[in-house]
Amino acid sequence: MKSNTWDNQWPDVETFLAWLDEVLVEFWRVLKPSGSLYLFCGSKLSAETEILIKNRFKVLNHIVWAKPSGAWKRSHKPSLRSFFPATERIIFAEHYGAEGFAKGANGYATKCNQLKQEVFKPLINYFKNARTALNISAKEINEATSSQMCSHWFSSSQWKLPTEKQYKQLQKLFSLRGDELSRTHGGLVKERAELLNKYEHLLLEYQDLKKQYDYLRRPFGVTSEVPYTDVWVYPPVQYYPGKHPCEKPADLLDHVILTSSKEGQLVLDAFMGSGSTGKQCLKLNRKFIGVEMEEATFKNTIVGFN
Ligand SMILES: C[S@@+](CC[C@H](N)C(=O)[O-])C[C@H]1O[C@@H](n2cnc3c(N)ncnc32)[C@H](O)[C@@H]1O
User: Fold this and answer.
1) 55 exposure class (CB count in 10 Å sphere: 0-12, 13-18, 19+)
2) Which of 83, 109, 225, 294 has its CA 20 to 30 A from that of 149?
């Protein structure tokens, strides 16, 4: 708790949690299916806060923001009755069922099926017709190729092109089964190179769809250069009179914004304070909406944006 009025609006913890739950309802309403929620809280109430969030969102991480410096260095250690809370917690969450929603939103699952059935249809049919015409069993196919791939090559589920070696084995099996019949009624007479050409072309269409799907999924991109575990170490912003007391460090905000959004996407900070999130959003080409209750703070913040 800070000494500011906004941080002392609640008579007790229960009232605070009831208020927070109302806020979460609104976050739930405005968060996109592919959106991410980062909620900062002190370590003391982090358990209660996480439980509240869990009721409405899928919690992905309870991030510990460890501050390498702070007022705790000046604390009178012998007077401490418990360990000094030198961390803030960041609860990172998404909508329940977000992944499924992304699949449904662009019709990904349906399109995938269509793709298998429509786009790959000529290839699937080529293999299927040959097999039906010659009445070759799955067991014979698997034995001839020393594999369990029959269902991949001869049906639309997880369709795959056989390897060169397997294709030759299949050709041999099919031509052994009724020579003339094989040639005229569906033997595997086409060469694999010809099929491969077609397959690669179709694969591109499939990859395009995959790209669309990746675009609709919740962005999440980390590298070994940034914190990719749930422990983050960022020095807090140094406070001085006139400065917002809770300003978040710019590099921490950059990390959040870059990890969980793409250029041009929209970020909301419903407790804007100093406007630090907004400033980093503008720098990183994200759109920004900020909400601030205190008029004086808001006016100060707006100046900082210009
Ligand atoms: C923890 S600070 C935000 C710090 C901010 N993210 C930054 O980096 O500067 C919380 C801010 O939310 C504002 N606030 C508190 N309750 C609010 C409410 N119900 N609606 C809008 N703003 C509120 C406070 O005035 C305060 O500036």
Assistant:
1) exposed
2) 109
